[in-house]
Amino acid sequence: MLAAMSGGVDSAVAAARVAEAGHDVTGVHMALSANPQSYRTGARGCCTVEDSRDARRAADVIGIPFYVWDLAERFDADVVQDFVAEYAAGRTPNPCLRCNEKIKFAALLDRALALGFDAVCTGHYAQVGDGILSRGVDEGKDQSYVLAVCSREQLRHAIFPLGDTTKADIRLEAERRGLQVADKPDSHDICFIADGDTRAFLRGRLGSAEGDIVEADGTVVGRHEGAHGFTIGQRKGLRIGTPAPDGKPRYVLDISPVNNTVTVGPREALNVDEIIAERPVGFERDLPARCSVQLRAHGEVYPCTAVLDGDRLTIVLGRPAQGVAAGQAAVLYDGDTVLGSATIASSSLLTSA
């Protein structure tokens, strides 16, 4: 079995558990940057040189072979460039979700199977059995949402040893096992944006292009330096000099890269209760009459009805949601079991609502 070891406490304990269970385990750290110094380090790091060293030390304690695989070129093409292209198109991507899909359960798993390993073990907080994905028991750490982009076949070769345990217990277990990463802080934000400034990162890749910030009726209320620097539901950083007529804050309602405009309006204008999603993944049985949907990582869960017609998934929410952005994943659940996921293409408020 191949154990993906990020350098954090979760993947270290996951590798230790499968090794203790009697599996023949090899640890692998993925080097994802050609220039690791440009990625986050320290408490907010992910997949850096520092993390590679932490992963190696954990593998030594566990007593398993350890290697570093260079996946920087694949990561740049499938995650970083995809991230930039999605923002340029007016959508809001989730790079962690894309990394799971394209790197950990495509590039890594494909290489593992080609080398004769039968499965890949990771430190994700989720549960899987015969390709069926479900939530982890720790509601605050559950990662089934970001794993729902994986196919059933990929999930049949995946093992998530932490799905039945809380994060607090994992840290205690790491300490008992003598793993130095027991108290290492979790990684946060986007690993390939070193200072956390997404707008500046995108400006460096896409350049500046001034445009209008408008109300829904077309009235110009401000200017911006690039529509790619905004996301649906955004409130802060709009820099609008003209106050709203009702004195309440404005929110980003729409982003149009074609004419480089950003439309803003009141919070209630964000309400949607119908979502159209494309590129479905994982659906292998008929959808139940009623299910639930999660629209962002660790976000609220909404009751819904859903109809899958070919590559088009239509979701009608039981109550309106706000801040639904194209490019994010819509993950359907039957209780705690993942039914499948699709990429949000558009959303609207039904006229009958």
TrEMBL record:
Residues 141-143 are annotated as: Interaction with tRNA. Residues 286-344 form the tRNA-specific 2-thiouridylase MnmA-like C-terminal domain. Its main location: cytoplasm. The keyword Coiled coil does not apply. The record marks 124, 328 as: Interaction with tRNA. It is found in: Cytoplasm. Residues 200-265 form the tRNA-specific 2-thiouridylase MnmA-like central domain. SUPFAM superfamilies: Adenine nucleotide alpha hydrolases-like. ATP binds at residues 4-11, 30, 123. Keywords: ATP-binding, Cytoplasm, Disulfide bond, Nucleotide-binding, RNA-binding, Transferase, tRNA processing, tRNA-binding. The active site is at residues 99, 191. It catalyses: S-sulfanyl-L-cysteinyl-[protein] + uridine(34) in tRNA + AH2 + ATP = 2-thiouridine(34) in tRNA + L-cysteinyl-[protein] + A + AMP + diphosphate + H(+). Its EC number is 2.8.1.13. Coiled coil: none annotated. Pfam families: tRNA_Me_trans, tRNA_Me_trans_C, tRNA_Me_trans_M. Belongs to the MnmA/TRMU family. HAMAP family: tRNA_thiouridyl_MnmA. NCBIfam families: PRK00143.1, trmU. Catalyzes the 2-thiolation of uridine at the wobble position (U34) of tRNA, leading to the formation of s(2)U34. This is tRNA-specific 2-thiouridylase MnmA. It comes from Actinocorallia longicatena.
